[in-house]
Amino acid sequence: MLDAAGIFAGLPLQAPGPFYTTPSVVEEVKDENSRRILERSATLGRLKVRSPSQGFMEEARRVASELGVEVSLSHTDVEVLALALELRASSLDVVVVTDDYMLQNASTYAGLRFMSVKTLGIRGVRRYEVYCPACGYKPSEPVSESCPRCGHSLARRPKA
Ligand SMILES: [Zn+2]
After folding, report:
1. DSSP state of 45
2. β-bridge partners, 96
């Protein structure tokens, strides 16, 4: 169960899942990097976007009001919580992945497990670039194993 932070971190590309999220989370995701992650995860079939049913939305709102946090939880947070409750009711093993303290708190209160993206130690999708360690040449197109300029073997390094 992912909120926007989990998508931003590229979780669905790093583990087979399946991961679930809600339509409002998808709407919140606007930056180009996260959009690309959404598209790729959809292609891989690892991320399912689902709306919680009305009954579980009410259940999630009840949890929020019992905690006195109904004003602190956004509509998206409530939706995430509701879908997590619904998935658990269909006996799935649900973990809510979020960095939002209010949502972590509400999940714990509802008896759901949560994990924060930060503690998972994931800091976004890493990109690599190919370069020649001998002459510093950086091919703009993917090329063969050796440097077209000096013949040295090419290497890979994380892109800054
Ligand atoms: Zn070279």
Report:
1. T
2. 114
Distance from Cα 128 to the centre of ligand 1, integer Å: 18
The string of pLDDT tens digits covering residues 87-137 is 999 988 899 999 888 898 899 999 999 888 877 654 544 566 788 999 999
142, 122, 124, 146: which is closest to 134 by C-alpha? 146
Calculate how far, in angstroms, residue 48's C-alpha sits from the geometric centre of ligand 1.
45
**CA pair distance 19, 38, nearest whole angstrom:** 11
Distance 125 CA to ligand 1 centre (A): 28
pTM, rounded to two decimals:
0.72
Pairing outcome for strands 128-131 and 113-115: unpaired
4-115 is a CATH 3.40.50.2000 domain: no
